[in-house]
C-alpha cells in the first residue's frame, strides 16, 4: 500500500483537514465491520489474484493508452487518452465494483445497495451482482432516471431493482441519502459506494480500487519509452476516475494534476456543480469536505448537464489536494462540454460520455509546451448520453 | 446536577423549529410545557437528514422553506427563555452548526440555558478525538445515541461521558418514524439499562403511542417521541395526540 499523504488518510480517515467518518451511531457497527474487513482482506495475495484476474478477463484490462494524433496536432502536445470507456459496461466504474463485490462476498453479504448518478455506477454494480449471484438495489434520482433512461433499462435487464429518489433535486445527492437510509434500516446489506466520497474507509477504498488506472498509465508510458506525464486531466464529480488517474502521480512533482469540474450554466449562474470554486468546508454523506452550501449550512442543489458530475460535494482526498495546491481545479460549462464531445467524435471517432467530455474541454484552456505528455482520462463512453446529444446537436 | 434525572418516568417530545410556521416555536413550547411534557427536543432543520424517515424529512424541508435557520431559532428561544421551565435539548446535524460556527453556537446554547445537545452525525470518537475542547470549554453536555447493536464496551464508555445528561437508546436500527415491536429487543434493553448505571436512559425512534410508551417505560427512564407527534401536528390533532399519550 502506498503511503503518500495524498492517498492515505490518518487513523480517523482524514486527509489533512478533510474526510473522517461523520456517521450516526446506527451505522457504526456496519462501518467498523467494513473497515476491519477491508484492511484484513483487500491487501492479501488471494484478493489481488482474483481481482486482477477479473479485471483482465472480465473487464478487459489493461485499457489502451491511445495516442490521439489529431488532438496532438490541434493542441500542440503529445495527447494520450486513457481509454476507460473501453471497460466492460462502458466506464471506469467497474474497477471499483469488482473490488468491492469481492469484499462483500468475503464478508458473507447477500444484498448489495448502491446509489447512482449517470447510471454508470449502477450498471457496474448490477453487473457484478449478476456475476456473483447477489441481490442488487440501486437508488437513482428521479431526474437522472429520465435523462439516463438507457442505463435504467440496462440495470433492470441485469436483474437489479432501481428505486427512484424523489426528494430534493432528485439527483445523485438524494439517491445517496436514500441509499444511506436503506443501509441504516438494513445494516446487514452491503453499501457499494461508487465514488471517493462517504465516510472513511470508502474514499480510501474506492481510490485504491481505481488506482489500477494510473498504474497502467505508468506501465504503458514506460513501454512506449516515455517516462512521466506532464499533465494528467480528469473530470471530478465525487472524483473516482480522477482519484484513479492521479493515484500514482501524487508524489511526482513534475506531473501537474488537473481536476475538471462542471460549471453547469456558469459559475455565477446559480446553476453549477463546481464544488472546489463555489464550495466551503462542510459535512455531507459522512465526510467533512468541500461542499456547495448556503450561509446557513443547507446543502445546495447543484446543476450540471452531466448526471455523473451533478453533485454538491467532492471526495475529501480531492478537497485536500486542491486546498494544498497539489491538484489544480478548472471548471467547464455545459456548452463547453457539449462542444468537446462533438470535437472528440469528429476528430478521433470516439463519442465520449458527458462526464469525460468535461475533461476534454479543459484542453483549449491549458497552455502546452511542445512535446509535453498529456493524459486525458476518458472515463466513459457516450452511448448513455445520446438523448442529450441528439437534443443539443439537432441542428447539425 | 443532572436535569434529566427524575424519580418518575419521563416523556419528551421532538419538534422541528420552523414548523408548521416560521414563528410556531414559542407557542409549541408553551403547549408542550403546559401539557406536562418533561423535557423538549428541538430539531434544527437540515436539507439532508440522513437518519430520518419520510415524516421528519418532509417537515425539515417545510421548515427550511418557511425560513427557519439557527440565527432565527436562537432569537426565538432568547425571547421566551424566561418562560421555559423544562429542560431543552437541541438536536441537529453537524453542518448547519459548523456554518454557524461551533464556538458561536455553543455560546448561544449556554446563554439560553440549553441542557443538552444531540448531533447525530458527530460520533463519540470524533468528539473525543477532535472536538472535546469546544464542548468542555462551553459546558454544554452532549447526548449520544446508542442502538441495541452498540457494543457493551462502547455503551460503558458513553455512559462514563454522560454523567450530566442522558443516553438516547434508538429502539431498533431503523431511521426515525419506523414501526417495530419493542419486545424483540427486550432482553438487550435490560442489559443496556444496567450498562448505563446511574445515567438516565431514554428510548426513542419509532415510539408512536401510549401503549408503546408504557412498554418502553419498562425498559428505560423515559421515551422520546418525534415523527408520531409531528404527524399529528401536521394533521392539526396535536392536542388530542398529547391527551391520549399522557393519559
UniProtKB/TrEMBL annotation, chain A:
The modification N6-(pyridoxal phosphate)lysine is found at residue 93. It holds the Pfam family PALP. CDD domains: Trp-synth_B (cd06446). Its cofactor is pyridoxal 5'-phosphate. Keywords: Amino-acid biosynthesis, Aromatic amino acid biosynthesis, Lyase, Pyridoxal phosphate, Tryptophan biosynthesis. Pathway: Amino-acid biosynthesis; L-tryptophan biosynthesis; L-tryptophan from chorismate: step 5/5. The keyword Lyase applies. Belongs to the TrpB family. This is Tryptophan synthase beta chain.
Automatic annotation (TrEMBL), chain B:
CDD domains: Tryptophan_synthase_alpha. Keywords: Amino-acid biosynthesis, Aromatic amino acid biosynthesis, Lyase, Tryptophan biosynthesis. Pathway: Amino-acid biosynthesis; L-tryptophan biosynthesis; L-tryptophan from chorismate: step 5/5. Transmembrane segments: none annotated. It is an enzyme of class 4 (lyase). GO terms for cellular component: cytosol. It holds the Pfam family Trp_syntA. One of its GO terms (molecular function) is tryptophan synthase activity. Coiled coil: none annotated. It catalyses: (1S,2R)-1-C-(indol-3-yl)glycerol 3-phosphate + L-serine = D-glyceraldehyde 3-phosphate + L-tryptophan + H2O. The keyword Metal-binding does not apply. The active site is at 41 (proton acceptor), 52 (proton acceptor). Its EC number is 4.2.1.20. Belongs to the TrpA family. Tetramer of two alpha and two beta chains. The alpha subunit is responsible for the aldol cleavage of indoleglycerol phosphate to indole and glyceraldehyde 3-phosphate. This is Tryptophan synthase alpha chain. It comes from Fluviicola chungangensis.
Amino acid at each position: 500500500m502506498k503511503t503518500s499523504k495524498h492517498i492515505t488518510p490518518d487513523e480517523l480517515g482524514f486527509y489533512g483537514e478533510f474526510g473522517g467518518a461523520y456517521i450516526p451511531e446506527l451505522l457504526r457497527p456496519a462501518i467498523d465491520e467494513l473497515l476491519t474487513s477491508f484492511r484484513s482482506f483487500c491487501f492479501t495475495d488471494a484478493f489481488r489474484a482474483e481481482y486482477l484476474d477479473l479485471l483482465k478477463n472480465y473487464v478487459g484490462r489493461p485499457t489502451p493508452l491511445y495516442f490521439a494524433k489529431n488532438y496532438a496536432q490541434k493542441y500542440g502536445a503529445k495527447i494520450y487518452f486513457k481509454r476507460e470507456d473501453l471497460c466492460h459496461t462502458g466506464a471506469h466504474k467497474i474497477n471499483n465494483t469488482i473490488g468491492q463485490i469481492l469484499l462483500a462476498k468475503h464478508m458473507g453479504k447477500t444484498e448489495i445497495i448502491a446509489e447512482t448518478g449517470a447510471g454508470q455506477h449502477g450498471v457496474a454494480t448490477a453487473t457484478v451482482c449478476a456475476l456473483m449471484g447477489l441481490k442488487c438495489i440501486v437508488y437513482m434520482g428521479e431526474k437522472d432516471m429520465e435523462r439516463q433512461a438507457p442505463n435504467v433499462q440496462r440495470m433492470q435487464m441485469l436483474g437489479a431493482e432501481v428505486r427512484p429518489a424523489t426528494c430534493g433535486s432528485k439527483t445523485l445527492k438524494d439517491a445517496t441519502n436514500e441509499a444511506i437510509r436503506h443501509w441504516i434500516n438494513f445494516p446487514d446489506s452491503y453499501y457499494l459506494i461508487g465514488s471517493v466520497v462517504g465516510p472513511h474507509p470508502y474514499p480510501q477504498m474506492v481510490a485504491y480500487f481505481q488506482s489500477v488506472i494510473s498504474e497502467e498509465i505508468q506501465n504503458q508510458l514506460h513501454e512506449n519509452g516515455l517516462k512521466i506525464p506532464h499533465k494528467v486531466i480528469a473530470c471530478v464529480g465525487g472524483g473516482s476516475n480522477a482519484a484513479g488517474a492521479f493515484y500514482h502521480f501524487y508524489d511526482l512533482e513534475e506531473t501537474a494534476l488537473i481536476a475538471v469540474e462542471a460549471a453547469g450554466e456558469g459559475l455565477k449562474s446559480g446553476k453549477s456543480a463546481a464544488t472546489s470554486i463555489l464550495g466551503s468546508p462542510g459535512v455531507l454523506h459522512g465526510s467533512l469536505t468541500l461542499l456547495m452550501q448556503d450561509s446557513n449550512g443547507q446543502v445546495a442543489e447543484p446543476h450540471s448537464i452531466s448526471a455523473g458530475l451533478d453533485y454538491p460535494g467532492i471526495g475529501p482526498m480531492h478537497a485536500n489536494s486542491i486546498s494544498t495546491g497539489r491538484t489544480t481545479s478548472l471548471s467547464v460549462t455545459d456548452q463547453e462540454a457539449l462542444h468537446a464531445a462533438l470535437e472528440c467524435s469528429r476528430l478521433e471517432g470516439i463519442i465520449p460520455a458527458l462526464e469525460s467530455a468535461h475533461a476534454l474541454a479543459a484542453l483549449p484552456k491549458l497552455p502546452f509546451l511542445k512535446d509535453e505528455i498529456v493524459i486525458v482520462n476518458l472515463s466513459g463512453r457516450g452511448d448513455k448520453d445520446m438523448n442529450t446529444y441528439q437534443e443539443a446537436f439537432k441542428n447539425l | 446536577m443532572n436535569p434529566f434525572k427524575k424519580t418518575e418516568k419521563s416523556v419528551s417530545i421532538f419538534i422541528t423549529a420552523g414548523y408548521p410556521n416560521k414563528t410556531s416555536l414559542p407557542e409549541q413550547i408553551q403547549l408542550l410545557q403546559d401539557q406536562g411534557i418533561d423535557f423538549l427536543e428541538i430539531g434544527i432543520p437540515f436539507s439532508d437528514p440522513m437518519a430520518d424517515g419520510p415524516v421528519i424529512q418532509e417537515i425539515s424541508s417545510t421548515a427550511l422553506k418557511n425560513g427557519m435557520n439557527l440565527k432565527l431559532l436562537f432569537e426565538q428561544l432568547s425571547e421566551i427563555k424566561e418562560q421555559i421551565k423544562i429542560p431543552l435539548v437541541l438536536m441537529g446535524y453537524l453542518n448547519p452548526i459548523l456554518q454557524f460556527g461551533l464556538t458561536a453556537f455553543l455560546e448561544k446554547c449556554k446563554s439560553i440555558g440549553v441542557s443538552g445537545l444531540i448531533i447525530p452525525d458527530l460520533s463519540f470518537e470524533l468528539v473525543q478525538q477532535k472536538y472535546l475542547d469546544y464542548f468542555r470549554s462551553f459546558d454544554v453536555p452532549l447526548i449520544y445515541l446508542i442502538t441495541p447493536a452498540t457494543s457493551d464496551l462502547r455503551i460503558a464508555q458513553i455512559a462514563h461521558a454522560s454523567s450530566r445528561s442522558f443516553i438516547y437508546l434508538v429502539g431498533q436500527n431503523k431511521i426515525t418514524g419506523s414501526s417495530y415491536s419493542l419486545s424483540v429487543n427486550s432482553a438487550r434493553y435490560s442489559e443496556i439499562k444496567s450498562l448505563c448505571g446511574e445515567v438516565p436512559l431514554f428510548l426513542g425512534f419509532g415510539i408512536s403511542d401510549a401503549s408503546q410508551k408504557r412498554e418502553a417505560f419498562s425498559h428505560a427512564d423515559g421515551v422520546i417521541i418525534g415523527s408520531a407527534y409531528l404527524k399529528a401536528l401536521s394533521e392539526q390533532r396535536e392536542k388530542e395526540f398529547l391527551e391520549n399519550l399522557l393519559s
